[in-house]
Structure of Inactive purple acid phosphatase 27:
Amino acid sequence: MGHSLFNGSVMWSKTYSFTSSPYPGQNSIQRVIVFGDMGKAERDGSNEYSDYQPGALNTTDQLIRDLDNIDIVFHIGDLSYSNGYVSQWDQFTAQVEPIASTVPYMIASGNHERDWPNSGSFYNTPDSGGECGVPAETMFYYPPQNKAKFWYSTDYGLFHFCIADSEHDWREGSEQYKFIEQCLASADRHRQPWLIFAAHRVLGYSSNSWYGQEGSYEEPMGRESLQKLWQKYKVDIAFYGHVHNYERSCPIYQNHCMSKERNHYSGVMNGTIHVVVGGGGSHLTKFSQLIPYWSVYRDYDWGFVKLTAFNQSSLLFEYKKSRDGKVYDSFTVSRDYRDVLACVHDSCEPTTLAT
Ligand SMILES: [Fe+2]
């Protein structure tokens, strides 16, 4: 990579190499990393004025160490916590450069990228420090229909991703809701069986302490509209950040666990597994004392998720801690296309007398 200066000389970067992405539906092994809320830290401890993201370097280093076994990364919001200071963006991009120069570094928008009072964000909080999404939209590539509206769909081999923007309205009737339905509906499950939804805030399920105090176990108004879309289009896994810990749910349909199985799902899935993976690096979030019935695994620590699609019918999910890179929670999914097609409650047209 390089650019020419006004005096005609050319500046070159170090030399990097990367592998081009598999085409949609390509049947090869594909490994996907997902986490949120990583942020940055100084390796020498300098300028560490608040130590706000104490796990950031551990997560970054584990990913760099395993880079030969990673194909694409999704950092689902709260990227750098720059909060209006562009030097902090420089520091963050330098930190993730070994990763982002080698594999696609896909992002979602979080409150620390976007929110600012009266700027059009869904929440009137000052969390972006006045950035209003502009640095994030400018520094990273992502394929939205409109850059200021940070929702997009993307394909990676056997995966179809629908990335939502929880800093803009997602409720039924909104522009984003229409997009989410169209994105989920357009997945060709025969060729791309693994359908993944992601958003920064917890639009699904989390038992962190403040959601527990509210009794909602979600971001207010989070899943009321979206649940029927996840169900209708049989989303396999929904990922969230914002809450700085790790939690995995059972396969959920209409607030009910559809399976008591914890580690090996086979055949018809019957529900969506919701995963909070916001422990990328920022200070940790406590869980509620009550453990909801749908909560399968909770971890108060920093970590990230790795998905491995071996082919169209076999998926491995692993949660790894950033401190040691070891797997602490995992499950597998084994199923065929006919299992995706199978009718689950309201996911098929109502039957007629003739049937
Ligand atoms: Fe956040």
About this structure: The first strand starts at residue 2 and ends at 4. The chain has a mean pLDDT of 94. The CA atoms of residues 202 and 219 lie 5 Å apart. Helices lie at 56-65, 86-100, 111-114, 134-139, 175-185, 209-214, 222-232, 337-341.
